[in-house]
Amino acid sequence: MGPISLIALTLAALLFSAGGILVGKLFNKGSKNLQKGEAYECGIPTKTSPWHQFNVGYYLFALLFLIFDVELVFLYPWAVVVKKVGVTALVEIMVFIFILFMGFLYAHKKGALKWM
Amino acid sequence: MGITQILFWILAITAIFSALMVVISKNPVYSVLWLIVTFFTISGHYILLNAQFLAVVNIIVYAGAIMVLFLFVIMLMNLNKETEPQKSKWLKLAGAVAGGCLLLVLVAGLRHTEKQMTEMVTGDIGLIQNLGKVLFKDYVVPFEISSILFLSAMVGAVVLGKKEPRIPVETEMRKVEETQQAINI
Amino acid sequence: MNALIFSAVSGVIMMFSSFLLNNKNSVRVLAHVLLLATIIANIFELRGISFFHIDTRGMLEFDRFALLFTLVANVCTFAFFLLSSRDLEKIGNHYSDYFSLLFFILAGIVVSSSFKSLLMLFLGIEILSIPLYILTGSDKRNLKSNEASLKYFLMGSFSTGLMLMGIALIYGATGTFQTGITVAEKVPVLLITGMMLLLFSMSFKVSAAPFHFWTPDVYDGAPTVVTSFMATVVKAAGFIAFMRLFAEEFGSIRPEWKLLVGIVAAVTLFIGNITAVFQQSVKRMLAYSSISQAGFMMLAIYSLSNDAKEGLILYAAAYSLATIGIFAVLVRMKDYTFEGFNGFAKQQPFLAGILVVFLLSLAGIPLTAGFLSKFYMLKATIDGGSLALAIFAVLMAAVSVYYYFRLIQSMYFKTGNATISGTTTGFKYTLAALAGITILLGIFPNLLTNWLYF
């Protein structure tokens, strides 16, 4: 299993997806009407533009999620080396998690995790 | 040309092309989608550098979480074609000239750079074991200090993003008037 | 290390203070006490007693220069707390959080003034800037504050990007993040390119021309209390990091950048002073004055001598104290224009007298700390071999006298009804103490600079 197989697989995937579209185009009867352009062709007709303003609350959640996501990323390398490095690694990660736990507690207390 | 080099060129060209498309696209959502392509190509570069962990993290954190944030911002500001401010041609020209100058100077400067850069001892520093060892032995202090950075970002998110209790209309009106006055000055 | 841990922990405590204390006064008192503890811990470390023994693997070095600046920054922040902490209350609903952000900024200041590794420089600058972006936009219902915050954030992250690129190039050239590199005869091009990028991004952070365009808008749009902090303590911290970076990392390739830094200093002096002359609002004038003072501080980086080091510390203290004092009065004024100060001396003779001391110090009139710090800078520049630059700086300082005296003129020689509210006796005494320190440092600068050696 060298890199050749990887490239072959990538090419195969590209060919397969492009081929699907191509075949669809070939056998397309060409019926054109307005409903074809809708997001849900056979659902309820859409009322307004899908572009509308989101609430800032989503953003707050996403941002908090991101911070803990990054924290989690640091845990993977820690988990791999914790045996080798020993107790110091345990202490280090505990301090790190504790500080971020403070942040979580803060967000919770502030009510930032409540919806609206 | 070995297989790695072919892969490198494909990835590099895709990366530059998609990065350009991020800037050129008129529709902000398309820009974000092109940015995702850019992140994937950069992950490809990481794999070529034998840093699989970083490649995966790049996809999870950047293409996953940060892209969602970008989309939220775009939706929050409700950007679409109609609201996009029309910048003047001259401004665009000035931007292109300034950016081009920077590119020119950097290329001209780095053209004569030394052929071989400082090489690190081995090529497997990006592997997760080595990364972990370096992170938890040599770079402990920056690692812990970065948690303060996270904390301040978190406080900021709450301070700026949290919904405020409604204030009386009169106070609000007064604030708006003050702003108006300040702008007039 | 003391100051770093104390201020970080204080930040965390302040985060939770609003849940534990339901009274705004006790939150404020707690902040003062925590800052005082930080100052005392820092003095202990300056006397050689460190409470924590953490192996930083050579990434942070708490030498006397760093410790003394940390002390100056902390004391200036304390003065800021004493004078302006009540005004923080008026910004918005998150009173205690503003304090915690300020403490995080202080932690960032410690890191960025004692770094020994480019990685720490980056972390320090980031910890310093991110809370500032937030504080700038903390007046959420004010459009100008929002605009300032967004502008600051976008420009700031762009310059941070340049800084990272520069660090990456330097790493490519030298293979280490550690400062204090030695180069062979031929300087690698990569190193020079990286150095240039770092020069640009640091100039941006300290708002030296031609990277100053964000400064007036951001300083003007931010809540006045926040402007007071960011134009003083944070800017001085930026200069300390700047100086440390160029003295330790690029000290050995000085001929490559000396001319460039000289040009940046001259341009900053010119643009800052000339534009300040035309301002109508005192707040905006102070923003431009901060640019022009940045030009003087750039001279320290140009000359990099011992005098420059002492001078920079003295400059940081003199400039910060005077500007914090002026801003503390400005926040309480109804009208921020020069006309708003008309007849101020008639109503508040005591406060007007103190303001005059601060303004004289900023203008560099003898017997004030501002004069001596400017003197140190000029001496270092002349010793550094550039008489022309020193003469130009003196000329520009003469221009600066115009707009500082314009404020004195409207206070004393014009009639009007300046309105100020909320001046308590404690406020007046604190201001008087600051003015006293300004004059004291102007006569005995050794009180401060001796700490560098003993």
From TrEMBL, chain A:
**One term under GO cellular component:** NADH dehydrogenase complex
An example of a GO molecular function for this protein is:
NADH dehydrogenase (ubiquinone) activity
Q: How does it sit in the membrane?
A: Multi-pass membrane protein
Q: Which InterPro entries match?
A: NADH_UbQ/plastoQ_OxRdtase_su3 (IPR000440), NDAH_ubi_oxred_su3_sf (IPR038430)
| UniProt keyword Plastid, yes or no | no
**Subcellular locations according to the entry:** Cell membrane; Membrane
Give UniProt keywords alphabetically. Cell membrane, Membrane, NAD, Quinone, Translocase, Transmembrane, Transmembrane helix, Transport
The membrane spanning regions, by residue number, are: 6-27, 56-79, 85-107
Supply the EC number(s).
Answer: 7.1.1.-
Name the reaction it catalyses: a quinone + NADH + 5 H(+)(in) = a quinol + NAD(+) + 4 H(+)(out)
The organism sits in which domain of life? Bacteria
Q: What does this protein do?
A: NDH-1 shuttles electrons from NADH, via FMN and iron-sulfur (Fe-S) centers, to quinones in the respiratory chain.
Q: State the family named in the UniProt similarity comment for this chain.
A: Belongs to the complex I subunit 3 family.
| Protein's name in the database | NADH-quinone oxidoreductase subunit
Give the species this sequence originates from: Flavisolibacter ginsengisoli DSM 18119
From TrEMBL, chain B:
Q: What GO terms are given for molecular function?
A: NADH dehydrogenase (ubiquinone) activity; quinone binding
What EC number(s) would the UniProt record show?
A: 7.1.1.-
The record's subcellular location field reads: Cell membrane
Specify one Pfam family: Oxidored_q3
| GO cellular component: a single term | plasma membrane
Domain of life, source organism: Bacteria
Which keywords describe this protein according to UniProt? Cell membrane, Membrane, NAD, Quinone, Transmembrane, Transmembrane helix
Topology relative to the lipid bilayer, per the entry, is:
Multi-pass membrane protein
Enumerate the transmembrane spans.
Answer: 6-24, 31-49, 55-78, 90-110, 139-160
Q: Which family does it belong to?
A: Belongs to the complex I subunit 6 family.
**Listed name of the protein:** NADH-quinone oxidoreductase subunit J
Species annotation: Flavisolibacter ginsengisoli DSM 18119
TrEMBL record, chain C:
EC annotation? Answer: 7.1.1.-
* Keywords for the protein's UniProt record, in alphabetical order: Cell membrane, Membrane, NAD, Quinone, Translocase, Transmembrane, Transmembrane helix, Transport
Report the transmembrane regions from the record.
5-21, 27-44, 65-83, 95-111, 155-177, 189-213, 225-247, 259-279, 312-330, 350-372, 384-405, 431-453
Query: Where does it mainly reside?
Result: membrane
GO terms of molecular function: NADH dehydrogenase (quinone) (non-electrogenic) activity; NADH dehydrogenase (ubiquinone) activity; quinone binding
Q: Which reaction does it catalyse?
A: a quinone + NADH + 5 H(+)(in) = a quinol + NAD(+) + 4 H(+)(out)
NADH:quinone oxidoreductase/Mrp antiporter transmembrane domain span: 117-397
Q: Which Pfam families match?
A: Proton_antipo_M
The record's annotation in NCBIfam families points to:
NDH_I_N (TIGR01770)
What the protein does comes down to:
NDH-1 shuttles electrons from NADH, via FMN and iron-sulfur (Fe-S) centers, to quinones in the respiratory chain. The immediate electron acceptor for the enzyme in this species is believed to be a menaquinone. Couples the redox reaction to proton translocation (for every two electrons transferred, four hydrogen ions are translocated across the cytoplasmic membrane), and thus conserves the redox energy in a proton gradient.
User: Can you say what this protein is called?
Assistant: NADH-quinone oxidoreductase subunit N
Taxonomic lineage per UniProt? Bacteria, Pseudomonadati, Bacteroidota, Chitinophagia, Chitinophagales
Gene name per UniProt: nuoN
